[in-house]
Amino acid sequence: MPDAANSLQFDAIARFALDPALAVPEDVLLRMSTLLIDTLGVAAGASGLDVAVIARDYACDYHGANRVEHAATLLFDGRRCSLPGAAWALATQIDNLDGHDGYNPTKGHIGCALVPALFALAEHRPDLSGRQALAALAMGYEVAARAAVALHATVADYHTSGAWNALGVAALGSRLRGHGGDVFRQALGIAEYHGPRSQMMREIDNPTMLRDGSGMGAYVGMSAALLAERGFTGAPAITVEGPEVAHVWADLGQDWTVMRNYIKPYPICRWAHGALEALRQLMAAHDFAAEEVTRMRVGTFAYSARLFAGVPQDTRQAQYSLGFALAVLLVHGRIAPEHVTGEGLRDPRVLAALDRIAVREEPRHSARYPEGRWSDITITLRDGRVIASGDVNARGGPEDPLSEQEIRDKLFRMAGVALSDGRIRAIWQMREALLDPACKFSQLAGLIHPATDGP
């Protein structure tokens, strides 16, 4: 068992996580609401993916609940399964469109696991207000972010987000199910012990439906909270209670990292976004067509240069491909779900553009990771001109945030494949409505079902 100093370290975290009157600043609540709505848009956009259908069917077939109080509704589907099954299915769905928010120091994503857990848990809290839900979600984001930083600082391998967002889900479950400190401690211990410490670079080198491990992270975190409340015990979480990570947790409740989360402009691996922004700026400044480009040279950081280099055969490869993403943006001026699925993968103009793109690692960009996602692009045009972007960082974070209109436009672009404009407008309006003390979280949940608006 941990020594007394570690117990005191945990006690401060427990007070933050479980305090029903946790004071969350208004700007944090609004930011949290924005990230929540953005994540829902990605979830809607992903609802028709083959992996999403597999995940929801699997959850219904193999993760049923024998009592109504143990079940939750699958978002954008309508069927019901167990609480852990619902969290797993939606997190897997979101993770596989890869348009969700993230936080640079974590090298990964939080909301794709916590938002599914929130909806599953909130279904059994009809009294839950929008503000209470946002405060709980903000707490979960803060716990998950610090668990990630602590894990990265204490182990050699680069683990997927599921390894640490499991702890954020466990914290969210403990808060919304009214656990005391000891149950919460066991939940974190179970979540950390069983969290999927899968190797991220295996997935990068061979893109699959596993993605960033967040589906299993959501499942483990939810299961940990439910097991702990029944008396199941877990070894104390060393990424929470270890003395070597005390500094990571020292500013909990003072520094709200959620304010530094980025929102992705595109449903593409974040590692590609520095180069995508460099290309976007060049296109805006020089107004050239894709067919005018005879060569594009890309300098980027090591992880970005390691992204899939061939012609994508499926959505997974397309979203983990720097060259393909650049080709899509060059041809279409945007990247939406239809560009990385179905016929979008076989677009002849995109494939022709892909053939003219060369990627290399640039050490100065590698040195700036993970604080930034920097790249540079040099383009040669048919008329002989050579234009260069200079060093460009990814957009969407606090240093270069998307505007409110851009975030709204993204919601319509993502969710438009599954929902009507009317429902998307109603979901967007909930971004501010959730902050109204009279608003119930169930009002947002009621806008989500079923998967489509018509028969």
TrEMBL record:
Residues 13-239 form the MmgE/PrpD N-terminal domain. Residues 266-429 form the MmgE/PrpD C-terminal domain. It comes from the Bacteria. GO terms for molecular function: lyase activity. Belongs to the PrpD family. This is 2-methylcitrate dehydratase PrpD. It comes from Roseovarius azorensis. The lineage of its organism: Bacteria, Pseudomonadati, Pseudomonadota, Alphaproteobacteria, Rhodobacterales.
